[in-house]
């Protein structure tokens, strides 16, 4: 059975920073392999995308979740048996509100969670259009999970569990009803995605298009050529 | 939309997106609108390919593979690896949304053929652009420019770059007309020869920028983003959104509303009005407040092969200095390809552009087209170049200039930084970017 590092604690965050990028030690002994994936959240405004991320990464929930300034790029790791899966999680930064999400947002994403609110039928319809958009525009191997969020509000349910399940099944999507408020199925949905992601050649979200990221470290001019292949 | 904002930005071209990002980061409440349903305006990369053909009312043929694999820029540019835009990308953290490749070759045209631009002493000695003695003079010139420190008169060797001209600098080292030509146009990247009579300091700074950029990644001083230049405005828009900026695409702008004193106080879209203290926009949103100062011609060429004589480079820039072809402004050729995810496998996109000088602009770019070999499809655009009628402080309406013919983003950034300063009264404070808020890198 796979298990995951406890989210949220400061020490945990520290450890994540120090995790080696290398996947194997020099002597060839198989070390815990680290695979990094870009995961994006999609769905109508106010369905709980940011809340799901906050619950998963920090173990927190805010009743009056305000768009968190500067926090649209978080990382969290999930431990499978012999593999560490590192999610680079992109939140929408509110750009979905007026249907103004930029294509670069889901470009190169290896995983997506499409979220709807079980108390709002319209958000389920919108989730379906997001799935279509991903199937059309994103990389063909993307792992998509459908999350029916706010499952704690069962009394106000408007979207039938079985209907959503059938839709997900037909379209090859993972499916869970979640609650960012009670934490139900939050870790589980990320874990299910981690298990389904292919962990062969690919080791980092950065290598998908064979480009390079430019960083401050490059800032000092180098004397030896360092090509960008 | 019926709210009050500090600033409303119209158009999501690169300049407006950088401005929007800087304003949001500085704590301003920003509403950013585009009339199109996509980001980027003129600095968008067009995708899928069918859309590009449609734009030019040309039937598409199936030879080009999957349309979705194409992202074709309308305005060709590269980033100088050590230039202003890279600094902005790094300091704002936008660089993490993007991946780049270094451009493989930088060439200059002389006497009907192209040669690699020699940018350091080693390359100068191997170059076929100069004879043996000229190489030595050019090498001395480069060393002098590298070692020249405006703050340290000991490095000046009797040359004052504040008062003496670039022409005088060339003469001091005895450089011939040819060497002057490729130095000024392919290294210092001037578009015409006006710089010769101006103080040499600017040219020396540009030559240094070229060689420092080259030193960063090796093959050329230029970088290009995967998936095309259209990624750049999207990256800065995301920055703005993360700092609270609101985005509305596909929104008509019907009026910029002015108050009794002639200052902007809002914008109207249909029956809605959004109030604001300032408006920032590109010239297309305010045709009555800009003047046309010239024209640029750009020709997009789809090809199934690299440019001849570039060692099969998958990306290149070729500069044709004006004098070589009897013109007043340079012709630029830039080439990118499938390796940048801007074309289907095996395909190349070349762009030939220049500042228009005659009534027959298509004739003017002929020398550039002639370097490319067989071209499968050409799309020609002649665009007007606009500048604001007034600097904006009295109206609080700040208008960017159109994108010029230069092949890099240095003038783009200067315009943005200048507008930001006019609009806010201060230089942009990079320390306001909270890199470590909620992220661990
Ligand atoms: N009851 C309940 N409320 C939730 C849940 N998830 C989010 N919310 C609330 O829904 C609102 C919108 O959440 P937010 O995460 O900002 O949605 P986003 O726009 O999709 O990112 C906030 O008031 C949250 O507190 C949930 O699982 N249960
Ligand atoms: Mg949110």
TrEMBL record, chain A:
Source organism (scientific name): Folsomia candida
GO cellular component, one term: early endosome
Keyword ATP-binding: no
Compositional bias per record (Polar residues), positions renumbered to this chain: 20-29
Region of interest (Disordered), ranges: 1-29, 201-229
An annotated GO BP: protein transport
Any one GO molecular function term: G protein activity
Chief place where the protein resides: other
Pfam families, per database record: Ras (PF00071)
Localization in the cell: Early endosome
UniProt cross-references to CDD domains, sorted A to Z: Rab5_related
Class of the enzyme per the UniProt entry, highest EC level: hydrolase
Protein name as it appears in the record: small monomeric GTPase
Keywords noted in UniProt: Endosome, GTP-binding, Hydrolase, Lipoprotein, Nucleotide-binding, Prenylation, Protein transport, Transport
Matching NCBIfam families: small_GTP
Reactions catalysed according to its record: GTP + H2O = GDP + phosphate + H(+)
UniProtKB/TrEMBL annotation, chain B:
Main location: cytoplasm
Keyword Nucleus among record annotations: no
InterPro entries, per the entry: FAD/NAD-bd_sf, GDP_dissociation_inhibitor, RabGDI
Keyword field: Cytoplasm, GTPase activation
GO cellular component: cytoplasm
Subcellular location: Cytoplasm
GO biological process: protein transport; small GTPase-mediated signal transduction; vesicle-mediated transport
A molecular function GO annotation: Rab GDP-dissociation inhibitor activity
Record-stated family: Belongs to the Rab GDI family.
Function: Regulates the GDP/GTP exchange reaction of most RAB proteins by inhibiting the dissociation of GDP from them, and the subsequent binding of GTP.
PANTHER family membership: RAB GDP DISSOCIATION INHIBITOR, RAB GDP-DISSOCIATION INHIBITOR
Protein name listed in UniProt: Rab GDP dissociation inhibitor
